UniProtKB/TrEMBL annotation, chain A:
Membrane disposition: Multi-pass membrane protein
Family as reported in the entry's similarity comment: Belongs to the DAD/OST2 family.
Keyword Signal appears in the UniProt entry: no
Organism domain of life: Eukaryota
Complexes and interactors: Component of the oligosaccharyltransferase (OST) complex.
A GO cellular-component term linked to this record: oligosaccharyltransferase complex
Organism in which the protein naturally occurs: Hibiscus trionum (Flower of an hour)
Role summary: Subunit of the oligosaccharyl transferase (OST) complex that catalyzes the initial transfer of a defined glycan (Glc(3)Man(9)GlcNAc(2) in eukaryotes) from the lipid carrier dolichol-pyrophosphate to an asparagine residue within an Asn-X-Ser/Thr consensus motif in nascent polypeptide chains, the first step in protein N-glycosylation. N-glycosylation occurs cotranslationally and the complex associates with the Sec61 complex at the channel-forming translocon complex that mediates protein translocation across the endoplasmic reticulum (ER). All subunits are required for a maximal enzyme activity.
UniProt name for this protein: Dolichyl-diphosphooligosaccharide--protein glycosyltransferase subunit DAD1
Pathway: Protein modification; protein glycosylation
A GO biological-process term: protein N-linked glycosylation
From TrEMBL, chain B:
UniProt-annotated location(s): Endoplasmic reticulum membrane
Segments forming domain STT3/PglB/AglB core: 581-640
Self-association and partners: Component of the oligosaccharyltransferase (OST) complex.
EC numbers for this chain: 2.4.99.18
InterPro entries cross-referenced by the UniProt entry: Oligo_trans_STT3, STT3-PglB_core, STT3_N
Ranges of Basic and acidic residues composition bias in the record: 476-486, 496-505
Protein name: dolichyl-diphosphooligosaccharide--protein glycotransferase
Organism in which the protein naturally occurs: Hibiscus trionum (Flower of an hour)
GO MF term set: dolichyl-diphosphooligosaccharide-protein glycotransferase activity; metal ion binding
Catalysis: reaction(s): a di-trans,poly-cis-dolichyl diphosphooligosaccharide + L-asparaginyl-[protein] = N(4)-(oligosaccharide-(1->4)-N-acetyl-beta-D-glucosaminyl-(1->4)-N-acetyl-beta-D-glucosaminyl)-L-asparaginyl-[protein] + a di-trans,poly-cis-dolichyl diphosphate + H(+)
PANTHER family registered for this protein in UniProt: DOLICHYL-DIPHOSPHOOLIGOSACCHARIDE--PROTEIN GLYCOSYLTRANSFERASE SUBUNIT, DOLICHYL-DIPHOSPHOOLIGOSACCHARIDE--PROTEIN GLYCOSYLTRANSFERASE SUBUNIT STT3A
UniProt keyword terms in alphabetical order: Endoplasmic reticulum, Glycoprotein, Glycosyltransferase, Magnesium, Manganese, Membrane, Metal-binding, Transferase, Transmembrane, Transmembrane helix
Higher taxonomy: Eukaryota, Viridiplantae, Streptophyta, Embryophyta, Tracheophyta
Length: 116, 785
């Protein structure tokens, strides 16, 4: 594949991705924003550890894993709430959100315990 | 079952008929489960009936002592407990090196009962914890198998697990060890994982993580879970079964599970740093990549997706290789590649015997022999392959998990006999599936061929008539196998029939199969007979083979029952006749029992965490008296305890274990060489034994005054007369020998007050007045070297 055509393809790909994503409903976009925020927080913590050192290792672990944990749980919520997902057709979104809150509660209880 | 309802009602609607049948089935299965729990509890009580309610073996005594401490001092003291009565002078941090699950469970049960004013002692609670949790484990097996194949298979699997001898061997009443609660936690975690996989509910994923936390608290074998589940996820991804339910089942488990595992002090940071957990992280990353790819595929058109793939592959491959190279370099830099010794010995069975003789010397870590499979799972050995085939038709996520579970557990059970215990639930699940499927086919055939029974007879009649051609072929095959079954043992034909059933079922798809009536009835009766053999074997194994407490021995002779209670006699003597701070040295097998029952400080115990310390004791036992006295004196030891079985024929005594002492001691102190103790490669203690052997401390302490028992010194275990019969001990004195000479306790003689001169040094213990004059000429040299 030539350079020019690959560039055009990349541009076309970017456009189609953008347009496809713009079509997703608003509540899913909010969840995606939350996921992005959590990943960004995790990255900041990793950079901080690389600069300062990992001495209270349990604090570092609990901080990073809390971000990763809420990311994962938010993605699970997104999967369950997404109306295009045939498997979760008869799961009311309130139940999905309640499960999400419960799991986050357990996660953060463990985090607070492990934070030291 | 449905006959009374159809005949009595006037115009029964299909709905009430089914609802009634379901209700009846539900109540019946509830009572069956209750009975299974009672059976699981009662079959483990043989040792309590035959002996007494006592804690068995060695490891349970440590757990019992820790539970006593927890019950007396509370949980904060327990977390921070530093034990100075073992591994003298090193001590042991109990809070950080023990798996707390079992202790906390029993402690909670004791506290609960006592707060309800039911005054059970800690010992009673400890003894009966294992049977209670085995009942819970069989209920967990029911739930797990119900998720895989339905209620019938679940009930069969639960009944099989309640009785399987392999599980009974580690969970009799009195065997207060980690596996008692760990197996329940294992099965329950797997059940919650399968339930999450089937329903995709985040609630069950949370429960799964909490159950995994309980498993990590209970047993070091939790690494099996955290490697099996990623393996299964990878299998699902590779076989094209990726779904969002898989993501919900696995991803929260990894994050929450790692955090919860890091909370347990024993595991700590090992949860993120050892190779045993890396598989879960790797599959976590792979799962996210696959999920992302599926998501992009879903929102793009196919042409655009192809473009994306080529772009990502060209750019991402380079990045991936760099990251993997860094990881590999990190892992390869550690000598054991990040694995712990025990896990490495599982992957490479020869590792322990080459590098870590202590792990190799434990009898539970040896590979099992073939007969132990038939002893431990009996009839299930034939049913497991049929169950695996039944799992494949139809193959679902949960049945692929069962197949993977049994494949891996068969491998690990072949490496270490202790892991037969992990294999047992898998065997019960698959056998339960196989048995229940075959029962289904036979009873259905009988039901359709009895006149005028089921309510949908019209539909069935049409289908059976269309299937009669197939049924004829089946009938011919089963008749042939029935005839040969008269000659050959019934089990072989059972397996052949069961393998035919799933294949014909798969061929017939939705059509029902009706076998000839007589062959179904006979097969059903033979299956029930098979189950009867299993039950008889399990009860026999529980009563005869696995109920020995090993701290009390019995033997039957012509004049009745002899009870050998020597161990407790010796520990009681120690408890009542020595000072509280006296140190007792013995081989590490008896450490836990000595601290728990005799309440004295020991040098080494069953935890075997410090190889050098054990090697020191081993060297002392293998050295001549004077050198051994030096070593023990430097460790502040006051009493030495040896176990000797020569008078009564008890084969697990210290003389039989002596070569391991030499090997372990020789591994650290090179002046101990194993060939010095063998004559022509043979280990002997008779007149042909080597002088090193005849002069070592173990020989002297075991056989001191032994010739006085029968005049000839005939050792019943080694079946020879001993080599050196008449000798005196110079540095030790005998203080106690139990009734059957099984435990012998010696005291170290204190060092002499007056120091002899170098020229007049003699081996005799009788001091004379003339030595007093030479004392001043000695200087600073230590005379005991």
């Amino acid at each position: 594949m030539g350079r020019a055509s690959s560039k055009e393809d990349a541009g076309a790909l970017f456009h189609s991705l953008r347009s496809a994503y713009a079509a997703t409903p608003v509540n899913l976009k909010i969840i995606d924003l939350y996921v992005g925020f959590a990943i960004f927080t995790a990255l900041i913590q990793v950079v901080y550890m690389a600069v300062v050192g990992s001495f209270p290792f349990n604090s570092f672990l609990s901080g990073v894993l809390s971000c990763v944990g809420t990311t994962v749980l938010a993605v699970c919520l997104r999967i369950q709430v997404n109306r295009e997902n045939k498997e979760f057709k008869d799961l009311p979104p309130e139940r999905a959100f309640a499960d999400f809150v419960l799991c986050n509660l357990v996660l953060h209880l463990v985090i607070m315990n492990f934070l030291g | 079952m449905a006959a009374p309802e159809t005949s009595t009602a006037a115009v029964p609607s299909l709905y009430t008929n089914n609802a009634l049948r379901n209700a009846f089935g539900g109540v019946l299965s509830f009572f069956i489960l209750l009975l299974i729990g009672v059976m699981a509890f009662s079959i483990r009580l043989f040792s309590v009936i035959k002996y007494e309610s006592v804690i068995h073996e060695f490891d349970p005594y440590f757990n019992y002592r820790v539970t006593q401490f927890l019950a007396k001092n509370g949980i904060y003291e327990f977390w921070n407990w530093f034990d100075d009565r073992t591994w003298y002078p090193l001590g042991r941090v109990i809070g950080g090196t023990v798996y707390p699950g079992l202790t906390l469970t029993a402690g909670t049960i004791w506290w609960l009962l006592n707060s309800l004013n039911i005054p059970l002692s800690v010992e009673t609670v400890c003894v009966f914890t294992a049977p209670i949790f085995s009942a819970l484990a069989s209920w967990a097996t029911f739930l797990l198998t119900k998720e895989v194949k339905g209620t019938g298979a679940g009930l069969t699997a639960a009944a099989l697990l309640a009785m399987v001898p392999s599980y009974i061997s580690r969970s009799v009443a009195g065997s207060y060890d980690n596996e008692a609660v760990a197996i329940f936690a294992l099965i329950f975690t797997f059940y919650l994982y399968i339930k999450t996989l089937n329903t995709g509910s985040l609630f069950y994923a949370t429960l799964n993580s909490i159950a995994y936390f309980y498993m990590v608290c209970s047993w070091g074998g939790y690494t099996f879970i955290i490697n099996l589940i990623p393996m299964h996820v990878l299998l699902c991804i590779v076989t094209g079964r990726f779904s969002s339910r898989l993501y919900i089942a696995y991803a929260p488990l990894v994050v929450l599970g790692t955090l919860l595992a890091a909370l347990v002090p024993v595991v700590g940071f090992n949860a993120v740093m050892t190779s045993e957990h890396f598989a879960s992280f790797l599959v976590f990353i792979i799962l996210h990549v696959v999920a992302f790819v599926y998501y992009i595929k879903g929102i793009l058109s196919p042409k655009m997706f192809k473009v994306a793939v080529t772009l990502v592959v060209s750019v991402g491959l380079a990045v991936c290789c760099a990251v993997i190279a860094v990881l590999i370099a990190l892992v390869a830099s550690s000598p054991t590649k990040g694995w712990s010794g025990r896990s490495l010995s599982l992957l490479d069975p020869t590792y322990a015997s080459k590098y870590i003789p202590i792990i190799a010397s434990v009898s539970e870590h040896q590979p099992p022999t073939w007969p132990s499979y038939f002893m431990d799972i009996n009839v299930l050995a034939f049913l497991v392959p049929a169950g695996i085939v039944a799992c494949f038709s139809p193959l679902s996520d949960s049945s692929s998990f069962v197949v993977l579970y049994i494949a891996t557990s068969v491998y690990f059970s072949g490496v270490m006999v202790r892991l037969m215990l992990v294999f047992a639930p898998a065997a019960c699940i698959t056998s339960g599936i196989a048995l229940s499927q075959s029962f289904d086919v036979f009873t259905r055939s009988i039901k359709f061929q009895l006149p005028g029974i089921s309510s949908n007879t019209e539909v069935d009649a049409a289908e059976t008539s269309s299937a009669t051609a197939e049924a004829q072929n089946d009938a011919v095959k089963t008749e042939k196998s029935e005839e040969t079954s008269k000659n050959r043992p019934s089990k072989k034909s059972k397996k052949k029939e069961k393998e035919e059933k799933p294949s014909t079922k798969a061929k017939a798809e939705k059509r029902l199969i009706a076998l000839p009536l007589d062959s179904s009835v006979i097969s059903l009766l033979l299956l029930i007979l098979l189950g009867a053999f299993y039950v008889v074997h399990c009860v026999w194994a529980a009563a005869e083979a696995y109920s020995a407490p090993s701290i009390v021995l019995t033997s039957h002779s012509h004049d009745g029952l002899h009870v050998f209670d020597d161990f407790r006699e010796a520990y009681a003597w120690l408890r009542h006749n020595t000072d509280v701070d006296d140190k007792v040295a013995s081989w590490w097998d008896y450490g836990y029992q000595t601290t728990a029952m005799a309440n004295r400080t020991v040098i080494v115990d069953n935890n075997t965490w410090n190889n050098t310390h054990i090697a020191t004791v081993g060297t002392a036992m293998s050295s001549p008296e004077k050198a051994a006295w030096e070593i023990f004196h430097s460790l502040d030891v006051k009493y030495v305890l040896v176990v000797f079985g020569g008078l009564v024929g008890y084969p697990s005594d210290d003389i039989n274990k002596f070569l391991w002492m030499v090997r372990i001691g020789g591994g650290v102190f090179p002046h101990i060489k194993e060939p010095d103790y063998l004559r022509d490669g043979q280990y002997r203690i008779d007149s042909q034994a080597t002088p090193t052997m005849l002069n070592c401390l173990m020989y002297k302490l075991s056989y001191y005054r032994f010739v006085e028992t029968d005049g000839k010194g005939f050792d019943r275990v080694r079946q020879t007369e001993i080599g050196k019969k008449y000798f005196k001990l110079t540095h030790f004195e005998e203080v106690f020998t139990t009734h059957h000479w099984m435990v012998r306790i010696y005291k170290l003689k204190p060092p002499k007050n007056r120091i002899r001169g170098k020229t007049k040094k003699s081996k005799s213990k009788t001091s004379s007045a003339s030595s007093r004059a030479k004392r001043s000429g000695m200087g600073k040299k230590n005379p005991w070297h």
